[in-house]
Amino acid sequence: MALLTLADYESTAGSLAAWPPGVWDFLTGGAGTESTVTANREAFARWRLMPRVCVDVSVVETSTTVLGSDWDLPVAFAPTALHEVCTRDAEAATASAATALGVPMVVSALSSRTIEDIADAAPEATLWQQVYLFRDRKVTASLVQRASAAGAQAIVVTVDVPRPARRLRDIRNELRFPPHVQARNLAASTGRAPDVSSPSAHTAEAMDPSVTWEDVQWLTELSALPVLVKGIQVGQDAEHARRAGAAGVIVSNHGGRQLDRARPTLDALPEIRTAVPSGYPVLLDGGVRTGAEVMIALALGADAVLVGRPVLHGLAVAGKHGAAMVLGILRAELTDAMAQSGHPTLDSVDRSAIHPAPDPALLSADTVPPPAPRVLR
Ligand SMILES: Cc1cc2nc3c(=O)[nH]c(=O)nc-3n(C[C@H](O)[C@H](O)[C@H](O)COP(=O)(O)O)c2cc1C
Ligand SMILES: CCCCC(=O)C(=O)O
């Protein structure tokens, strides 16, 4: 079967026999009832595109500028841990795919390869380093310093993991990664290989539940690199991040993996967009799976989006080619949606480009009046 959509990649990846026990559930799952994983996706279904016609779309331009750098697509690779569980070349493969498509890759603090190795493997890649404010701040500082020396262009600090989440699939599966899966980037900053065989035990040990905006400010002053705060879900927190010196925010609920029943990121986006000055970078992740959905996120105020799980599906199906194919599908779909809706560039994609879908409750049998009975003669 031809793999034409991100959903095709997901189902093909899910049916691979090679997954170690529990790993597919780890990638796919979320916290608690997984209501937020589902809600992130469903939020996109509540919007429709409003096609304009008789606009010259003979040339469609998907490129954009974020934090002063040019991206071929308004899409980046979200930071996801341990790519070695998906493909042997791990983040070296992901970085080549990102380079091929002209989009940035956010390297996880828990990557299986060091930032130096990733930069060597893909010298042209635009790399951003994701970090946590670990209990041991020296580890955070070392990750930032090494990323800067390796040529990374920004730091992303993830602030939505105060403690391990209740990920029921992982608990039931008693998830343990195979021993070859290692967090080498972190190891290079801690001086010893951290035990990540149980993600939740590692999170409990390493993450700091006492983090406040003062710590974010400390991080923004640590290096010359711009810092984006990832995990913003409320307008006021976007403003806190900006005041703490952040160069931008990423609207994210960690793909529904931390707080079950958190609101979908797309629903939070308009509030966050209006809480910060226009021109201040606002990115979004969570449930983006088609090019039309990229347009919807942009129309609601995102400068760009990030994709998480689909990249892992691509890596698992066909290594770097698979990750590049996943992004290639998003590019083809976005280009098509822009052309079909009369937007030759992304500049014109604003709130007027979309319309709320009718509320299904209003269409139910209870609320739509039945037709008047016919009078029979
Ligand atoms: C397997 C997996 C590992 C992740 N690891 C990290 C991580 O190390 N750091 C981080 O900030 N976010 C991490 N995330 C969250 C992603 O960056 C992103 O917020 C989320 O996956 C976006 O949703 P999507 O998967 O629906 O696109 C991870 C997500 C997944 C699925
Ligand atoms: C040891 C890896 C845990 C990362 C993860 O699952 C997440 O951040 O969602």
From TrEMBL:
Residues 368-377 have a biased composition (Pro residues). FMN binds at residues 79-81, 108, 130, 158, 230, 252, 285-289, 308-309. Residues 187-207, 342-377 are annotated as: Disordered. CDD domains: alpha_hydroxyacid_oxid_FMN. Pfam families: FMN_dh. SUPFAM superfamilies: FMN-linked oxidoreductases. Keywords: Flavoprotein, FMN, Oxidoreductase. The keyword Flavoprotein applies. Its cofactor is FMN. GO terms for molecular function: FMN binding; oxidoreductase activity, acting on CH-OH group of donors. InterPro entries: Aldolase_TIM, Alpha-hydoxy_acid_DH_FMN, FMN-dep_DH, FMN_HAD, FMN_hydac_DH_AS. The active site is at residue 254. Residues 1-359 form the FMN hydroxy acid dehydrogenase domain. Glyoxylate binds at residues 132, 167, 254, 257. This is Alpha-hydroxy-acid oxidizing protein. The lineage of its organism: Bacteria, Bacillati, Actinomycetota, Actinomycetes, Streptosporangiales.
